[in-house]
Specification:
The chain is α/β, with parallel strands linked by helices. It contains six helices and eight strands; from the N terminus they run H-H-E-E-E-E-H-E-H-E-H-E-E-H.
């Protein structure tokens, strides 16, 4: 079992390197060209958009349950991250700002720490003044597999008000990319 984890960890590290490099140079990795879209609804979601797996209840760092299905009707920015992830530390302040700016418009930002304990997440959340729920993903491979598999961090999912998984950003994104995705869904 230990060797499998090492293989997955090495694969994830390599995926992160390959996924982060294009974004770091300002290349948009995943957004679909407007010419590939059909209807007005498609303009806000990628062409291959599908229902988001929202049938999960996860615990936040204080042990409170967060039922994702109950968030339907809101735009959800779901970010998979870890305390050791350098690119995550760049994106999280943007998410704090987005949560503050768009909360009243129906944006819900959720952070899912994939492999940290609540005790590891709390000081991180305090340092970054996180104003949105920080969910504990440790031991919740079922949730990670429902959205993945997740091979590298960060990974950010955008879910519209109807519960459609509209966009996925693999690796670090730019603030402008995230802003465009939020604007298109609100």
């Amino acid at each position: 079992m230990t060797s499998r984890r090492w293989i997955v960890a090495v694969g994830a590290a390599l995926a992160l390197v390959f996924l982060t490099l294009p974004a770091a140079r300002g290349v948009t990795v995943l957004p679909v060209s407007p010419f590939e879209r059909g209807t007005a609804q498609d303009a806000r979601c990628d062409a291959d958009a599908k229902p988001a797996p929202l049938d999960f209840t996860l615990r936040d760092i204080d042990g409170n349950p967060v039922n994702l299905a109950a968030l339907k009707g809101s735009v959800i920015l779901l970010n998979f991250w870890a305390t050791w992830c350098g690119p995550c530390k760049i994106e999280i302040p943007w998410f704090v700002e987005f949560q503050r700016q768009y909360k009243d418009d129906g944006l819900v930002v959720l952070g899912l720490s994939v492999d940290d304990t609540p005790e590891q997440i709390r000081p991180f959340a305090a340092e970054f003044r996180v104003n949105y729920p920080m969910l504990v993903g440790l031991g919740r491979e079922d949730f990670q597999e429902a959205y993945g598999p997740v091979w590298g961090l960060p990974v950010t999912f955008f879910i519209d008000r109807e519960g459609t998984l509209c966009r996925t950003h693999l690796g670090i994104g730019t603030r402008e990319e995230f802003q465009r995705d939020i604007d298109s869904l609100l």
